[in-house]
Amino acid sequence: MNRKLLKSVREYKKQAFLAPVLVALEVLIEVLIPLLMANIIDIGIMEGDMGYIIRMGLLLVFLAVLALLFGAKAGQTAAVAAAGYAKNLRHDIFYKIQEFSFGNIDHFSTSSLVTRMTTDITNVQMAFMFSIRLLARAPFMVIMSWIMTATINIEIAFLLLITIPVLGGALIFIAKKAHPHFIAVFDEYDVLNNTVQENVNASRVVKAYVREEHENEKFQKISLRVFDLFTKAEKIVAWNAPVMQFVMYAVVLLLVLIGGESIVTEQMQTGELTSIMVYAMQILMSLMMVTFVFVQIMIAEASSDRIREVLEEVPEMKDEENALTTVPNGDIDFENVSFSYTGKDGNLSLKNVNLHIKSGQIVGVIGGTGSAKSTLVQLIPRLYDVTSGCVKVGGQDVRKYNLEKLRDQVSMVLQKNVLFTGSIYENIRWGDENASDEEVKRVCRLAQADGFINEFPGGYNTMIVEGGNNVSGGQKQRLCIARALLKKPKILILDDSTSAVDTRTDALIRQAFREEIPDTTKIIIAQRISSVEDADVIIVMDNGEINGIGTSEELLKTNAIYREVYESQVRGGAENHE
C-alpha cells in the first residue's frame, strides 16, 4: 500500500490499529481449539471419561463464541477504518482539484478524475480493509499453527514449512505477470467513462443526428477492450487457485501418509493427527487468503498510482507569502503579454499583447473563431498564467494577489454556461451565499431574467435540473449573468454570454450595466456588432494579436476586419429587412 496515501487514514488510525489486534486475539483462540479437540479424542473418548468430554466441550463452545465476537468486532472495525480512509481520500482529491488551475485540469480528463475518485478509491478501500484484517490474520495464523504443529510432530512441521516459499514464489511470479494488465485496464476505464459521459451530455445531439448506432458501436469497441484486458489479467491470476489446490492436496496426502505411519508405530495419537490436520488446513487456508489479498493489492496498486498522480500534481498557481488581498479598482493592463497553452516551447495563442483598460469602461472584444478572444480575458482572473509579460489589475500584477480575493473581484460568465442542481435562488447565490432574496431579484432584473423566472410556477424556488436542461439557452445565459452580478465585482467579463438572447434583451442588459454598475469594468466578447457597438472601446483580435483598438466609428475608418464584419451584419441585416 502506498505510504503517501496512507496519510489519509488520519482520525481512523485507532480503528486501523485495533482491527489487527482483534484479529490476533481471534487467531489465538482458534489455534487452541484443535488442541482441545485432540485432548477430547485422546483423553476423553479413549479413556471413556464423559465428565472430561462435557467440560472440554463447554470450553470449546465458549472459545468458539469468543472467537466469533472478536472476529465480528475485527470485521466491523476494519470496515469503519477502510470506509473512513476512502472518505478522506475522496476529500483530499476533491480539495486538491479545487486548487488546480485550468492548466492542471487540462492535464487530466474529467472522466479520468471521476474514475479516480470512484473506481480507484473503491479498489484502494477494499485492499486496505483486506490488509488490516485478512493480511494481518494470515501471517499470525501461519506462525501460531506451525508452532502448535511443531510441538506435536516436528517432521510434519518442516513439511508444512516447505510449502510457504513454493506458494510465495508462485504468487510473486503471477503478480508480476498480471500487474501491467491491471494498469492498462484502468486507463481504458477512463476512456470508457469519457465515452459514457460525452454520450449522456450530448444525448440530444446524438438523437437529433440519429447517431445512436454509431455511439453504440463506439461504446462496444471500448467495452470489449476493457473486457480483453481484464480477461488477460484474470487468466494469469486464475492460476492462483489450481496451484493452491495442488499444494493443499499434496500436503494432505503426505500428512495422511506420515501421520498414519506414526499412529501405527504409536509415535502419535489419533487426536494429535486430527489437530495437525486442522493446523495444516489453517496454514494452507491462510496462505490462500494471502493470495486472494495479494490479487486485490495488485489491482489497488494500479489504482493508488493513479490517485497519487492527482495528489502529487503541483498546482501551477500559488499565492505569494504576502499576497495582496485588496483590488483597488478595475484598471486592466496587458504589458507585452504572450501565452501558450502548452508552455514556453508551445505555439503562442497570444502574441505580444499591450493593452490598457480604464476602470468603469465598457470594452467590446470581437474577432474570428480562434483569434484568442477567450484566451485574452481568461488571463485577467488567472484562470491561466501568462507565458511572458504580465497582466495587471488595479495597477498590480495579478500574480501578486491572493487568488481567492482576485477572483472575488472578477466575475466571469464563460462561453459554456453552467447551472447546478438546486433552486434558482441557490444558483444565483453562488455569487454571494449571504445575499438576501431582494438582492437576488435585483440582479435578475438587471440581467433581464426576472420576467421569465416569475412565469415559472415555483418562481425563484423553481428547481434547476442537472446541467440546467429545463431552461432555454437564453434563460441560462441571463441566470449566469445575474449570478456574476451578485458578486458586485470590480471587473465583469461576458465571454459570448448573450449570444442566445434577442437583440432587444441584449440592449436592455447593456443599458442596465451602464446605468446600475458604472464603476465596474465591463468586458463583452461577442460575435454580434450590435452587442459591442456602443462600447467605450472595441478591441479587434486576429490570430492572437490585437488588430485594432478604438470606438466603432474609429474602427470603421481604420480597421478592415471590423469594417467587413460591420458591413456583413449591419448592412446585410438592413437589406434583408427591406
Automatic annotation (TrEMBL):
GO terms for cellular component: plasma membrane. It comes from the Bacteria. InterPro entries: AAA+_ATPase (IPR003593), ABC1_TM_dom (IPR011527), ABC1_TM_sf (IPR036640), ABC_transporter-like_ATP-bd (IPR003439), ABC_transporter-like_CS (IPR017871), P-loop_NTPase (IPR027417), Type_1_exporter (IPR039421). Residues 17-298 form the ABC transmembrane type-1 domain. It comes from Candidatus Blautia faecavium. This is ABC transporter ATP-binding protein/permease. The lineage of its organism: Bacteria, Bacillati, Bacillota, Clostridia, Lachnospirales. The chain crosses the membrane at residues 21-46, 52-72, 126-148, 154-174, 246-264, 276-299. It is found in: Cell membrane. The keyword Chloroplast does not apply. Its main location: membrane. PANTHER family: ATP-BINDING CASSETTE SUB-FAMILY B MEMBER 10, MITOCHONDRIAL, ATP-DEPENDENT PERMEASE MDL1, MITOCHONDRIAL.
